[in-house]
Write a structure and sequence with these properties.
Number of strands: 2
Shape: globular
Helix content: 55-70%
Strand order of the largest sheet: 1-2
Structural class: mainly alpha
Oligomer: single chain
Distance between the termini: 9 Å
Number of helices: 13
C-alpha cells in the first residue's frame, strides 16, 4: 500500500518499508541453510531474534500506510463503501499473488503438498480487516479493538492448552482446518503447524492495528506521542514475557507489543532523520516496489531451485570465499549478493517510474 496522503508522501515510510523488504530477502536467501549467523535466523520457538522483527515491522507499516492513504478522506467524512471496496479488492489481489507463488513453489520445487497460508496471504488478510476497521470504526473503537485482540488472544493461548509446539491452540486449529496444507504436517500423528496460521493471525491483526494508530499520530505531527507510545508498548511487552513469552510463530501479545513498540521508535527516528533533516531515504526503491520485489525474489529463488541451478551457482560462484571467511561468511556473501542484485533491479525500475502494484 502506498504511503500517501492528499498532499504529501512520507519518504521515511517508503524507506522503512524498503529496508524491511531488503531484510526479508537477506534472511530468506542464504547460500547454505546449515551455515547462517544466529541474528539472521528465527528463534526456534520462544524468543525474539533480529530476524523475528522483520515481518511484524512490515505489518506495522501496512497499518501506517492505511492511515496515510485514507486518513484525509476519513476525516473529510468521505463515503466509506468506495474506500472499503478499494481495500478489499487490493487485499484479494495480495492473497491471490501469495497463492500463485506457493503454487509455483509446489510445482517447480516438487513440494509434497500445496501450502495455503503464507506471508502475502497474512498481509492481505490484515490489510483487508484493518483497512475496514480504519474506514468504519472510530478512533476510540479502534483502540478498544486493539486492546480486545491483545487480551482476548492472550486468554485464548493461556486458557486453551500449553504454549509448546504440540499443545498450543493455534497448532491444533491449523491441524484441524489446514491439515496436510499447513507448513508442517505429520500424517501419522495428525500434527499440523502453520507459522502464518489462522489463530495466530489474531496477533498479526493487533500489530497492523498498532501501526494504524501510529500512522495517525505521524499524520498529525504528534512525534512526542509516537515516541511515548513506542516506549510504553515495548516496555509492556517486555514486562509480560514472564507470563507470555515472545513467540513469532504464535505471534503472542507480548511479541505484538515488543515489536510494535520498536517499530514505533524506528518510524519516529526515520521521520526525524529523513522527512525533517533531509537524510537520504535508504531503501526507498525497495519500498515503492515492495510487493514486486518480494514476489520477484520469490520467483527467482523458486526458478533457480526448481531447475537445479541454485546449488551450482553457490558452489562455483562463492566457493572461493570459504578459505577467507569460512562457511558462514560464504553463506552471508551469497545472501548479500542476492539483495544487491534486487537492489539494482528496483533502483532501475524507480528511475524509470515503473511501479508494480497489486
Amino acid at each position: 500500500m502506498s504511503a500517501t496522503t492528499a498532499s504529501k508522501r512520507y519518504a521515511s515510510v517508503d524507506a522503512l518499508r524498503g529496508l524491511t523488504v531488503a531484510a526479508m530477502l537477506l534472511v530468506n536467501n542464504p547460500g547454505d541453510w546449515g551455515h547462517v549467523y544466529w541474528p539472521l535466523e528465527h528463534a526456534e520457538w520462544h524468543g525474539c531474534t533480529p530476524t523475528d522483527l522483520i515481518f511484524p515491522f512490515f505489518l506495522f507499516i501496512v497499518g501506517v500506510s492505511i492511515a496515510l492513504a485514507f486518513g484525509s478522506r476519513i476525516e473529510a467524512h468521505a463515503p466509506p463503501a468506495p474506500m472499503a471496496k478499494t481495500i478489499l479488492v487490493r487485499a484479494l489481489r495480495i492473497i491471490g499473488l501469495g497463492l500463485v507463488l506457493h503454487l509455483l513453489a509446489w510445482w517447480l520445487m516438487d513440494k509434497p503438498e500445496f501450502r495455503i497460508m503464507g506471508v502475502l496471504q497474512r498481509i492481505g488478510l490484515c490489510f483487508a480487516l484493518v483497512g475496514c476497521a480504519a474506514v468504519y470504526l472510530r478512533e476510540r473503537t479502534q483502540w478498544l479493538l486493539l486492546g480486545g485482540l491483545l487480551l482476548g488472544y492472550t486468554a485464548l493461548l493461556l486458557g486453551a492448552g500449553s504454549l509448546d509446539k504440540l499443545g498450543n491452540i493455534a497448532s491444533r486449529v491449523d491441524a484441524a482446518v489446514l491439515g496436510r496444507h499447513a507448513y508442517e504436517w505429520v500424517a501419522a500423528t495428525g500434527f499440523g503447524h502453520e507459522p502464518e496460521g489462522l489463530v495466530s493471525t489474531l496477533g498479526a491483526l493487533a500489530t497492523c492495528l498498532l501501526g494504524l494508530r501510529a500512522g495517525h499520530l505521524l499524520r498529525q505531527g504528534k512525534l512526542q506521542q509516537l515516541l511515548i507510545f513506542g516506549v510504553a508498548a515495548a516496555a509492556l511487552g517486555w514486562l509480560v514475557t514472564g507470563v507470555l513469552p515472545f513467540n513469532k510463530q504464535l505471534w503472542t501479545s507480548s511479541f505484538v507489543l515488543w515489536t510494535g513498540g520498536l517499530a514505533c521508535l524506528a518510524l519516529a527516528l526515520a521521520h526525524v532523520l529523513i522527512d525533517q533533516r533531509g537524510w537520504p531515504a535508504l531503501g526507498r526503491s525497495f519500498g515503492v516496489n515492495a510487493i514486486a520485489a518480494y514476489g520477484g525474489a520469490w520467483m527467482c529463488t523458486v526458478l533457480l531451485e526448481g531447475f537445479g541451478l541454485m546449488a551450482p551457482l553457490y558452489a562455483h560462484g562463492f566457493a572461493w570465499l570459504q578459505p577467507l571467511v569460512g562457511p558462514w561468511g560464504q553463506s552471508l556473501a551469497f545472501a548479500l549478493a542476492f539483495v544487491a542484485v534486487w537492489a539494482v533491479i528496483v533502483k532501475l525500475l524507480d528511475r524509470r517510474g515503473i511501479y508494480f502494484k497489486v
